[in-house]
Design goal:
Elements: H1 2-14, E1 18-21, E2 24-25, E3 28-29, H2 43-59, E4 68-71, H3 86-103, E5 108-112, E6 129-134, E7 147-149, E8 152-154, E9 160-166, E10 171-180, E11 183-189, E12 192-199, E13 209-213, E14 221-232, E15 237-245, E16 251-260, E17 265-270, E18 282-285, E19 291-293, H4 302-316, E20 320-325, H5 333-349, E21 364-366, H6 367-375, E22 387-389, E23 394-397, H7 398-406
Parallel strand pairs: 1-4, 4-5, 5-6, 6-20, 7-17, 9-18
Antiparallel strand pairs: 2-3, 8-16, 9-15, 10-14, 10-16, 11-12, 11-15, 13-14, 16-17, 18-19, 21-23, 22-23
Helix pairs in contact: 2-3, 4-5, 5-7
Length: 410
């Protein structure tokens, strides 16, 4: 508590607002095995959660709200056995909201959205601000803009379909991350199978297989890294269907689909945090490379995502802040800068304030942490970035910083 007292005193001198954000407690950890996370289903752990915020509210009750706010819990989630629904989440948050506002009615309270960016309607009338975390640019993205689909495709939900004028020489690349059981993916052009790709049954370390889930069961699945399949069209086609073959194989997951033609290149990124619906899209690709879907809620752009958040504020009056945003270090650097510019422009247009993560996903790096990553042989800094020292312990990604400065009132 002395550390926090000193921090608040220093920040008050420099006009910096502090938000205390709880990441770990008995029954909940942000980065851990979800099977350990039982707080939302354990009354004693909920009592400790509320007691913590009661203590913090009392201890800091004389600190003005302009200087200090509380974020009740970072990136809420359930356990391996029990999924966290919005009603259960809201009920536990309400207990902490009540105790904080009973002690300090003016204290600003943030509550994180579910699944990083799903607004919680049950908390819309609680005098709180809802927090979203936007990490939408995934590993090794090398072009921008991109569209998003839910990369999880289950046979019961239909077959992934692409419609357009696909001429001879068009290349379609599927980046595959998971495959259930043993079988194959087959690509059909106008109803005729033109290529097939066998998957499943590998050992770890074989053919890009890095993980096996639920081994030796009916649910066994295989996880891959860098497993791509490219098909080149030998004749014109208007409809392409990706079909899962094999009696025992029921689902697969895609990192991305890339469609390269003479006239355009389209990247569809698979993300169930951006596109929640597991309905399988039927995508139409126009001559200019623009993409649309005739299945509701199965295609999302960056602007769609931000406008969805803004629509929640317009509908309920609940304010939103993006308390975390960031970009993986493995992405193409020019893509990172362009995506950051577009994201911050979209947030500014909707009057949504934001804060960047630091470290691996952000623009500010602790030299000591960087050295630890380097010793482990892991990538940390972005290729192509100009890195500047800012003091004894810190360095910045100058390009990303300059993009951020465009949208900060200096």
């Amino acid at each position: 508590m002395r550390n926090l007292d000193e921090l608040l005193t220093w920040c008050a001198q420099y006009g910096i607002h502090v938000c205390i954000d709880l990441h770990n407690m008995p029954g909940f950890t942000t980065d851990a095995d979800d099977s350990n996370d039982s707080m939302f289903f354990d009354e004693e752990q909920q009592r400790l959660f509320v007691a913590f915020w009661s203590f913090m509210a009392n201890y800091f009750q004389d600190v003005p709200p302009q200087l200090l706010s509380f974020n009740l819990l970072n990136e809420p989630h359930g356990s391996d056995e029990t999924e966290l629904d919005s009603e259960t989440y809201a009920a536990v948050m309400q207990l902490a909201i009540d105790v904080v506002h009973d002690i300090t009615p003016e204290r600003v309270i943030f509550v994180d959205m579910l699944s990083l960016s799903d607004p919680v309607y049950e908390l819309a009338d609680t005098d709180t601000v809802q927090s979203a975390h936007l990490y939408f640019l995934y590993e090794e993205t090398d072009r921008w803009p991109v569209e998003y689909i839910n990369g999880f495709i289950h046979r019961n939900n239909g077959e992934l379909t692409l419609e357009g004028d696909f001429s001879v020489g068009t290349e379609i690349t599927f980046d595959i991350s998971q495959f259930h059981a043993a079988g194959a993916l087959a690509l059909y052009a106008d109803g005729v199978e033109i290529a097939a790709y066998s998957l499943g049954g590998e050992s770890i370390g074989e053919n890009g297989c890095v993980e096996i889930g639920e081994p030796n069961t009916d649910g066994e699945w295989f996880g891959y890294e860098g497993r791509t399949w490219t098909v080149r069209l030998e004749s014109d086609a208007e409809t392409l269907v990706l079909s899962q073959e094999g009696e025992d194989s029921w689902w697969y997951r895609l990192n991305s689909i890339t469609i390269d033609t003479e006239d355009y290149s389209v990247r569809l990124v698979g993300s169930n945090s951006v596109v929640k619906s597991e309905a399988v899209p039927r995508l139409a690709i126009a001559a200019d490379g623009s993409v649309s879907s005739d299945v509701a809620n199965t295609l999302c752009s960056l602007n769609d995502m931000v406008e969805m958040l803004h629509g929640f504020t317009q509908e309920t009056g609940t304010l939103i802040m993006v308390q975390e945003l960031g970009f993986d270090a493995d992405n193409d650097y020019d893509v990172t800068l362009a995506a950051a510019d577009d994201l911050l422009a979209a947030l500014e247009a909707c009057d949504i304030p934001w804060c960047s993560w630091c470290g691996e996903h952000g623009y500010l790096f602790d030299k000591r942490e960087y050295q630890a990553y380097t010793m482990k042989g892991e990538r940390f800094l972005r290729d192509g970035a100009e890195i500047e020292d800012v003091g004894e312990y810190w360095m910045v990604d100058a390009g990303l910083r300059d993009v951020f400065r465009i949208y900060i009132d200096m």
